[in-house]
Amino acid sequence: MQGLVSFVEASLEDARAAQEVEEGLWRGVLALGHSLLGAFFAASGDGDVGEEHRTEQGRVLKRLAPRTRPYRSVFGKFQLERFVYGQREGQAIELIPLDARLKLPETCTSFLLQSWNEQLMIEQPYAQTNDLLERVLEVRQSVQTLERQQAGLSTSVDAFWAQQPVPASASANTLVANTVDGKGVAMRASETQGLGGKKKMALLGRLHPIATGFDCADQRFRRALPSHGRGRWFDPSAAQTAQCASTWI
């Protein structure tokens, strides 16, 4: 912190440009965050809870040799050494007290950095996301790391939809819009039998009701709707085969 203050004072004396001061402060803030987060980890200990630990189920675990894990944060990288517990060396690790107490992610990437990755990957390719965050945070990630993160998120899709409320039943004056958007996703050469430049389509679909002031079962209303094939409206009050199109979907 004192180094940042001294930097500003020196910048005033040297008449540095605002851009140079801003950039220097940002790099200093990152260094300060790394120092403070490192101090937090050091003060948190090594997770030693004794030679033996009894679980809630009554099983007795033994303290094994310390293990080191990487931790990649928005302030940089760390190596955390902590004790682990299990039946014996060479068998599965059953408990890591420090990881559990600090609620660390299973992967080496912090939850905050994962969140920033996700926000950027919605709009940008993995490589561009990686380059942007490296430029801003000076933290290097691999494209494979970002791919694995997204693959891990996909396992939560079913649970997400299970938590969503069931839509109300559509009435006779309700149209149900069915939309699908296709996005081309570049494929690796290994996935296209050596043919470069191929893409596969990722589809995002949505169904949502729209209340109208009309009786959608009225055939006169159907004939009044223009049709040019860009989308279709499905009338829940009529036969399954009855369809009409909309110009703005």
Explain this structure.
The chain has 249 residues and is of the alpha+beta class. 37% of the residues lie in helices and 22% in strands. The chain is built from eight helices and ten strands. The protein has a four-stranded antiparallel β-sheet, with no helix packed on it. Strands 8-7-9-10 form a four-stranded antiparallel β-sheet, with no helix packed on it. Helix 1 packs antiparallel against helix 2.
Rg measurement, Å = 28 Å
| Strand residues, percent | 15-25%
Helix fraction by DSSP (H/I, runs of at least 4): 25-40%
Number of strands: 10
Query: Given the helix and strand composition, which structural class is it?
Result: alpha+beta
> Treating each run of at least 4 consecutive H or I residues as one helix, how many helices?
8
Q: Mind describing the biggest β-sheet?
A: 4 strands, antiparallel
Instruction: Provide the spatial order of strands within the biggest beta sheet.
Output: 1-2-5-6
Terminal-residue CA separation: 55 Å
Q: Low-confidence stretches at least 5 residues in length (pLDDT < 50)?
A: 226-249
Order of helices and strands: HHEEEEEEHHHHHEEHEE
Q: Mean pLDDT, rounded to whole units?
A: 80
- The coarse silhouette is flat
Topology record:
Layout: H1 2-13, H2 18-43, E1 52-54, E2 60-63, E3 67-73, E4 76-82, E5 85-86, E6 93-95, H3 97-102, H4 111-121, H5 126-137, H6 143-154, H7 157-162, E7 174-186, E8 199-211, H8 219-224, E9 233-234, E10 243-244
Helix pairs in contact: 1-2
